[in-house]
Every structure is written in structure tokens, then in C-alpha cells.
Specification:
The complex is a heterodimer. In chain A, 36% of the residues lie in helices and 21% in strands. Chain A is built from 6 helices and 10 strands; from the N terminus they run E-E-E-H-E-H-E-E-H-H-E-E-H-E-E-H. In chain A, the strands form 2 sheets. Chain A has an 8-stranded mixed beta sheet with strand order 1-2-4-3-5-6-9-10. In chain A, helix 1 packs across helix 6 and helix 3 crosses helix 5. Chain B is mainly α. Chain B has 4 helices and no strands. In chain B, helix 1 crosses helix 3 and helix 1 packs across helix 4. The longest helix of chain B has 15 residues. Classes of the chains: A alpha/beta, B mainly alpha. Chains A and B meet through helix 3 and strand 10 of A and helix 1 and helix 3 of B.
């Protein structure tokens, strides 16, 4: 029985991307567009359990660390929106052409970068301004704990003026902040299914369970992972027949 | 999957929205969540509610109510009690 778990450094264009692969080598390809910043930390276990379950259903998933994040060797300057887009586009090619795409939270902002045959989105933000404000809010909160006062507005002004802002363990360059501010949720150009914690525009179904991406101390992700894997597998099965 | 319906939030619904957000973001046990009353102290009393968690609660409230919360709307009193938070949610939902 071939191993169904693999960590690899994938050459994608000029990048070397740390990736976790799960599932059979000839499985249905699924490229994960990862959540951004601290949400990736919070969702790591959920994504591991989900992809492990998907692997038993014949799905071969790839979870990359975007440049400058996770185990990627680059520094803060590697967290570049254009570089992220290119990395995902080339990675899709490495996975055989147009894989199914699973966009998780802020990853949905990059969903028009890689070619794909279908798109499944989990709780996408309305635009890039949201994850940016989350970051600045986290920095503001951390400063408050430390006894100083830094408003989100002050951080935005400093970023505009050219400062790198440290927030939630990340160094946010002015270029990245500007890219996030200007990022809109792409209009899907392929069959798309959107799952969220509550009904809203463009939401196809609600997933039960507390949003682990919002929790400072994420609870057991197993129940949500099971529901997510089953819904995503059914979606891929429905879309997977070559068309 | 169960579909939850979002209606206009106000009055008793504001308390339930606040309760639900706190429970979800802070991973409160059901007994703690259901035990929140208007005079229950939050910030400084609930160990789960530190400044980082406050940021997450604000963001989740924004998403659920479809609103934006400015920095200057958030002072030390907002999270003083469950009642103060509920009143804030009620007011923002009515805007």
C-alpha cells in the first residue's frame, strides 16, 4: 500500500514550496488555497483531519505553505501577493493541470490565480480588507495587553507611510497591506460551491459547528472536518467527471 | 446540513447573538454560555476573554450583523458585562 501522507518541497516556478500531500497518487487532485496568517495556525488541525478523511475517499490533496509562511524559507518580503498568485498557478500545473480547488477562508481571495475545474469555498471573506483589519486589530489588542494604546487607524496610517507592521506574529509590508486592501473576492469562473457558518449572499449551505478560525484556542475540529470532507467529496464526485 | 436563518437582530435577539458569538469564539461550555446574565462580568472575569479574544469577538460580530465596528466605539466599558455587550449589539443592529 503506497504511503498516503507525504511532506515535500515542491518546485513551482522559482519557488520551493513546502507541501503536505495526502491520498493515493492517482487520486482526484485537490489544491488547497490556504487560509491566511493566524487563521492558518488555527485551522491546521481541521485541514489535516479533513484531508486525511478525503484521502480515504480517493482524493489526493495538496496543502502548500505560501511563500513567507509556515515552513517556507522566505522572510517577510516573500509574503507578496503576486508571488502567492504565481505560486498557486504553477502548483496547479505541477498537480496535473486544472485540479479541483478548495479555498479556505482568505485563500478564496486568490481563487482566480490557479486554473481549476471546480471551486469549493469555506467561509470566504467579502474582500481583502477583512483579513487586513483582523491583523491590525490583533496587533491593537496585543498592544493593549502590553499596556500601550495603538488604534487600528494609527496602524493603517503607519502602513501607508511605509512602515512594516508586526501583527499576530507576521511582518506585514506596506505592499502586502495595499494588496490586501485592494483585493476583492474573485467572481468564480468555474463551478463553485460556498459553505459558511451562516447564510449570506452566495452561500450555498451552512456548516454546523463553531468557527475554529475565529477561536484563540480552537476546539476539537473532528466533527467539522467530517462534515466538510463528506460535503467536499460529494461536490468533487459530482464535478469530477471530465467535462 | 442545518440551515440557520438570520433575521433582524434586536431586543432579546441581541442577547442571543452576543451569547452565541461569545460561546463560539471563546469555546465556552454550554453551562457557562447559558449562565450569562446582564450583570455577568466579562473582561477581567472570563479568563478566555483576553485582548486577542476581544478582537475576534468584534470581528465575528461584524460578520454576523453585517456591520463595521470602529476603534472609537470600543471602550473599556463595552465588555464590562454581558449586559453592556448586549446593549451595544442591540444598538448596532438597529442602525
Amino acid at each position: 500500500m503506497t504511503a498516503s501522507f507525504e511532506m515535500a518541497l515542491v518546485r513551482a516556478g522559482g519557488e520551493r514550496l513546502p507541501c503536505v500531500f495526502r491520498g493515493p497518487a492517482d487520486g482526484t487532485p485537490l489544491l488547497i488555497l490556504p487560509p491566511l496568517f493566524e487563521e492558518m495556525n488555527r485551522m491546521r488541525r481541521l485541514l489535516a483531519l479533513t484531508t486525511a478523511r478525503l484521502a480515504t475517499m480517493g482524493v489526493r490533496s495538496c496543502l502548500p505553505d505560501l511563500p513567507g509562511t509556515g515552513d517556507h524559507e522566505g522572510g517577510p518580503e516573500a509574503m507578496d501577493w503576486g508571488r502567492w498568485r504565481t505560486a498557486l498557478a504553477v502548483l496547479a500545473g505541477v498537480l496535473g493541470g486544472a485540479p479541483h480547488l478548495f479555498a479556505v477562508r482568505g485563500g478564496a481571495l486568490l481563487a482566480d490565480a490557479p486554473p481549476g475545474r471546480s471551486l469549493y469555498r469555506l467561509a470566504p471573506p467579502t474582500d481583502g480588507g477583512k483579513p487586513l483589519r483582523d491583523l491590525f486589530r490583533a496587533r491593537s489588542a496585543a498592544d493593549r495587553e502590553a499596556g500601550t494604546r495603538t488604534t487600528v487607524g494609527a496602524l493603517e496610517a503607519r502602513s501607508d507611510a511605509g512602515d512594516i507592521i508586526e501583527a499576530a506574529g507576521y511582518s506585514i509590508t506596506p505592499a502586502l497591506a495595499a494588496a490586501l486592501r485592494g483585493a476583492e473576492l474573485p467572481a468564480p469562473a468555474m463551478p463553485t460551491r460556498t459553505i459558511a457558518s451562516a447564510l449570506g449572499p452566495n452561500v450555498d449551505a451552512v456548516i454546523e459547528g463553531a468557527p475554529v478560525w475565529r477561536q484563540a484556542e480552537p476546539v476539537d475540529a473532528a466533527p467539522m472536518a467530517k462534515a466538510l470532507a463528506h460535503d467536499l467529496a460529494a461536490w468533487i464526485e459530482h464535478r469530477g467527471r471530465s467535462n | 446540513m442545518t440551515i440557520r436563518h438570520l433575521g433582524r437582530v434586536g431586543g432579546a435577539d441581541a442577547a442571543e447573538t452576543a451569547r452565541s458569538v461569545l460561546a463560539d469564539v471563546l469555546a465556552l461550555t454550554p453551562s457557562v454560555a447559558h449562565g450569562l446574565r446582564a450583570d455577568t462580568a466579562l473582561f477581567g472575569a472570563l479568563p478566555e476573554l483576553d485582548s486577542m479574544a476581544v478582537a475576534s469577538v468584534l470581528t465575528e460580530l461584524e460578520d454576523r450583523l453585517g456591520i463595521a465596528i470602529d476603534d472609537d466605539e470600543v471602550d473599556g466599558d463595552l465588555f464590562a458585562t454581558f449586559g453592556s455587550l448586549t446593549r451595544f449589539v442591540d444598538a448596532k443592529a438597529r442602525d
